[in-house]
Amino acid sequence: MLELSNITKIFRTELIETHALRGINLTVNEGEFVALTGPSGSGKSTLLNVLGTLESFDGGDYKLDGTSIKGWSDRELSNLRNEKIGFIFQGFNLIKDYSLFDNIELPLRYRGMAASERKRRVEQALELVGLAARKDYHPSQLSGGQQQRVAIARAIAGQPRILLADEPTGNLDSLMARQVMELLEQINAQGCTILMVTHDPDQARRASRQVQIVDGMLSDASMYDPLAVA
Amino acid sequence: MEQFLYYLKVSSISIKRAPLPYFLTILIMSVGLGVFFANATFYYWLKHDPLPGKSAQLFHPRMNSNPNLCSTSCEAPRVLSYRDIKALTSTDIASASAAMYSAEGYAKVKEQQPATRANIRVTQRDFFSMFDVPVLKGAVWPDNETRMEVIISKAFAQKMFGSDDVVGQSLILDDRFFKVVAVLDDWGMFPRLYEPAHGGYLEPDADLYLPLETAYDLNYASNRQSQSFEDADFQKLATDGRTKAIHQLLLWVYLPTAEQQQQYRDFMNNLVQSEKAAGRHPNANGNLLHPMNGIMQAYDAESQEVKAFALVTALFLLVCLFNASHLSLNRYIANQYEISLRRALGASRWQLQGQMLADVLVTAGLALLLAVLIALAGIALMNHLLPDNSRMASWDGTLIGGLVGLTLLSAYLVTLYPALRASFGALNQQLK
Ligand SMILES: Nc1ncnc2c1ncn2[C@@H]1O[C@H](COP(=O)(O)OP(=O)(O)OP(=O)(O)O)[C@@H](O)[C@H]1O
Ligand SMILES: [Mg+2]
User: What is the value of pTM for the model shown?
Assistant: First the structure.
């Protein structure tokens, strides 16, 4: 369903040009759980941002369900982000003075969905992440793991087909990380395609496929042993 | 609608996050707007067209009928003599015409009463139809002949008789008996452009209207402008006033069509020609025909201070808006993270514009409230310092509409630039 061909991305600042992505070719099929690994600065977040259309790309083509998104308008891209893609950030990115309910409801608000349907979806998502009882809490009243589960609930409340997660467990201790992983596996089992950036080889192994990026290019996973680097 | 309520909720939450800078923004905007409103109110009334649609068809003729050859100032005098009036109204080109001046007298209802000072407008029949004066009771004079009949304002009727139903009753004016033939309804032509010189346009309308011929017979002198170009006695209007160059009359003629206006100009020129032929008009033709809607400029009656002050308040408003915009930019930059997050989660720029509109409305609403209070305080202060100007203190629909519009525009300007800067920034930067 996702097809990247020869994607390049260059960051230009006054002093330097950084070639963050140098010709990425990647196809992800419906229902896959892909783990994206690679050393720091190799371009993982950039790739995920390009996939999530949070970042434009300079060269190559990005096809979604066979259609290139090149030249799409702001409106089309925001619809895509709103309806088809769920994004989980490493830093949770919850709004601190909004309740859990309001945080999760936020993307649904931009979809013109009836209030009752929004409520149903938010409650369903909260149920799934095991925080139904705390919908009126504020993020600061939760642990890091719980906050990340709220962020996941926000990402899946809109029932996206693709979930993009940038180091979703990076800020969590191992117990909480495992809970979040289990949650993602559960979501994947329900049919949602997942692309996850991770540094943790155990997590990467649990994915259905591992893709490794080094210096802006995909490389054969076998050539890169994260343990050797660590 | 529901979406808009959501936008309003988002606005109010973001205000609560940093209330102080927000209210400082509002305060700065309101001070600028309030000062501007106060002055705009004054300016608006000064520039107000008292007879929309008609003021371009009412004309004030002037002629240089000075019997002496002028040496320095050769502009036609602003007031005309009785002879000029007779000559200028000896045609039926104008649909209506009335000569006038202002005088004063002392009125009472019963002989043994103390008299009350009355502002008198000496004028002619057409005055009332020409300036759309509403007649409450009775009827105005049928012609311009001498008659011992007065027309009084509703307020004066109330003051003198305790009622406005007084047509047919007598009023003693300067110890002579007059019959009240009409009571005028509240009128308030403002500014009173028919009396443009010397701040006359700001004064209230007369209490009492007296026929011109009667006033001349009874020697009611003008209490405003009068000029004499030959040896004559101002007190003897009945005689000298009618024959000599005693100038104290203002004439207004109603010329609704362009054709009439041209005819009247030609008529005035012919008049000068024939006067010259008779050896009476020694000066060059100095005829003028001012339309009412240009009378202030023609008389150079607009004060330069008023203009300068209007400019100052406009500049002050700009400075305030600039500062408010700067404060507002800081607020949006603080919120940029949230804006990027909303974009990342699927809000389009269009939807963020909706959010911005809600911000504008909230800001405009609060700023309007405060600005109106500041403006009212400013107007109260001006009325206190310049009581003469207090008739210029009220707000009508146009003015209120303009003020609301200006506030919305200001709120939009103060919000627009910062919001655009925040919503067009790179998305991912903020979300690391
Ligand atoms: N906005 C930006 N401007 C300039 N350079 C950038 C920008 N974002 C990323 N880069 C550069 O692009 C390269 C790839 O960055 P990216 O964030 O994708 O790495 P990463 O693989 O996610 O690293 P990490 O594991 O540390 O998160 C880096 O060299 C980084 O410095
Ligand atoms: Mg990264």
Answer: 0.74
